[in-house]
């Protein structure tokens, strides 16, 4: 596929292979973009931002809704592309397509609800006879730097609100999964988005990302990815708006009064969807010492039932990791943990990019598989003595994106909600759940700002104060 910028589709002499994580086959190629391409893209987007700023919100709404219709007509094509380039099973890819459509649909609705507020200036000394109100205006150019693990929905979470707010958008998709983003651009253009208002550049993230983030014409950066890359982007960005959706190692507290079968079912779902390559995957499972063995008995058969293999096979329950180096990393962290005293309950094996779903028990909170972000198909079970210790363990991390608790005790549930430092808190569910319209973001090293169309639009607009004297 070609990349899109400066209102045209472009090819380059040098290409990058897009490979199937399951078997390593090349499924397509994309151009290797350059810093000069970034400059040309932004120059055109400056003009596109002017067009979008003057476009009525009803037209922005119409374009987004038409885009949804076009994606729905190509839904299976999008799902197949996601599975081929990312490796998640088809059922998960189909769900992602439907979620991406929902994200764009909600963005279309929110395009009609961008409002300011009236301020009672007569409440201030000398304010009698004055009238004040605020206006929200587009930032201008929004850079959407997106990860590999949700190549459609996490792109729409940036592109949809940006367009709804009246901005031009520069997409830099992950190098492993650029094809889905390029297909989204096809649909946006067919739906009537001005070609000057959209760009999608493919190529090395370190090179293109630095050029995008340091360009003063880019007024807003929305990034989803690792803490280290997010920190580097913030250092490069200078004085501009940034939203950072970063990593996590989400804790699940299973209390002594919990329904263990339900908890095990939801941990298996939250810990291993997309081979654990989800920023809100359940990673640290905290269980009472008196019930740890019972919980493991309930969890082990559910995890062992997750058959791995070709993600295009409808019977496969978990596909490969995105790269073999990531699967090797998971394998190494598991080996480190077992060498330091953790118990391997099931899994632990690897074949290429396929890593078996794994449960580790008796994991020390200081072990890397507990205190860092694994981003792979394994959960680490750590016992606790009482609720105070469980809360301390849940908070004993630099991250704070998602956390959950299983309990029938309302007081415990509310204390969990008050005291655990995470942006998304779930009671009697796993950590991996998100409604695409809700405010979504993390605390501590898990990021700054919020996603969800309504909340992202706030981040992608500037506020003006108007006073009539």
Descriptive report:
The chain is α/β, with parallel strands linked by helices. The chain has 15 helices and 22 strands. The strands form six sheets. Strands 14-17-18-13-12-19-20 form a seven-stranded mixed beta sheet, with helices on both faces. Strands 9-8-7-10-11-21 form a six-stranded mixed beta sheet, with helices on both faces. Strand 7 (141-145), helix 5 (153-164) and strand 8 (168-172) form a beta-alpha-beta unit. Helix 2 packs across helix 6, helix 4 (90-110) packs parallel to helix 5 and helix 7 packs parallel to helix 8 (227-237). The longest helix is centred in the first third of the chain and has 21 residues, at 90-110. The mean pLDDT is 97.
Q: How would you sum up the global shape?
A: globular
Distance between the termini: 56 Å
User: Largest beta sheet: what is the strand line-up?
Assistant: 14-17-18-13-12-19-20
Beta-strand proportion: 15-25%
Stretches where pLDDT is under 50 for at least 5 consecutive residues are: none
Q: What would you report as the Rg, rounded to the nearest angstrom? A: 23 Å
Q: Which bin fits the share of residues in helices?
A: 25-40%
Please describe the biggest sheet, giving its number of strands, its sense, and whether it closes into a barrel: 7 strands, mixed
> From the helix content, strand content and strand pairing, which structural class follows?
alpha/beta
Average pLDDT confidence is 97
Number of helices: 15
- Tell how many strands the DSSP assignment holds: 22
């Amino acid at each position: 596929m070609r990349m899109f910028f400066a209102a045209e589709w472009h090819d380059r002499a040098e290409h990058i292979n897009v490979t199937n994580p399951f078997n390593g086959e090349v499924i397509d190629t994309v151009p290797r973009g350059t810093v000069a391409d970034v400059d040309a893209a932004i120059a055109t987007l400056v003009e596109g931002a002017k067009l979008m700023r003057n476009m009525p919100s009803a037209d922005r709404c119409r374009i987004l809704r038409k885009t949804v219709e076009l994606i729905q007509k190509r839904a299976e094509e999008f799902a197949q592309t996601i599975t081929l380039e990312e490796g998640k099973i088809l059922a998960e890819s189909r769900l992602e397509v439907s979620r991406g459509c929902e994200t764009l649909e909600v963005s279309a609705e929110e395009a009609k609800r961008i409002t300011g507020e009236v301020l009672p200036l007569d409440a201030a000394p000398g304010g009698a006879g004055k009238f004040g109100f605020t206006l929200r205006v587009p930032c201008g150019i929004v850079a959407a730097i997106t990860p590999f693990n949700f190549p459609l929905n996490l792109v729409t979470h940036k592109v949809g609100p940006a367009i709804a707010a009246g901005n031009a958008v520069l997409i830099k998709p992950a190098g492993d999964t650029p094809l889905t983003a390029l297909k989204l651009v096809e649909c946006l253009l067919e739906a009537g988005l001005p070609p000057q208002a959209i760009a999608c550049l493919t190529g090395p993230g370190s090179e293109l990302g630095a050029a995008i983030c340091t360009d003063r014409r880019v007024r807003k950066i929305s990034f989803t990815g690792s803490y280290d890359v997010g920190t580097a982007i913030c250092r490069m960005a200078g004085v501009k708006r940034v939203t950072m959706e970063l990593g996590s190692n989400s804790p699940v507290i299973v209390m002594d009064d919990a329904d263990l079968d339900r908890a095990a079912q939801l941990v298996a779902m939250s810990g291993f969807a997309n081979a654990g390559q989800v920023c809100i995957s359940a990673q640290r499972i905290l269980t009472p010492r008196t019930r740890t063995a019972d919980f493991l008995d309930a969890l082990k058969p559910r995890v062992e039932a997750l058959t791995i293999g070709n993600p295009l096979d409808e019977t496969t329950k978990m596909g490969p990791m995105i790269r073999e180096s990531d699967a090797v990393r998971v394998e190494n962290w598991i080996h480190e943990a077992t060498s330091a005293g953790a118990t391997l309950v099931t899994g632990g094996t690897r074949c290429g990019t396929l890593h078996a779903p794994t449960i580790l028990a008796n994991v020390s909170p200081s072990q890397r598989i507990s205190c860092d972000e694994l981003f792979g198909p394994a959960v680490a079970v750590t016992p606790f003595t009482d609720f105070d210790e469980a809360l301390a363990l849940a908070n004993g991390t630099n991250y704070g994106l998602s956390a959950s608790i299983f309990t029938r005790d309302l007081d415990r549930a509310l204390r969990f909600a008050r005291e655990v430092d995470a942006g998304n808190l779930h009671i009697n569910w796993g950590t991996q759940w998100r409604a695409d319209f809700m405010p979504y973001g993390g605390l501590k090293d898990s990021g700054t700002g919020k996603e969800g169309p309504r909340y992202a639009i706030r981040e992608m607009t500037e506020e003006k104060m108007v006073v009539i004297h």
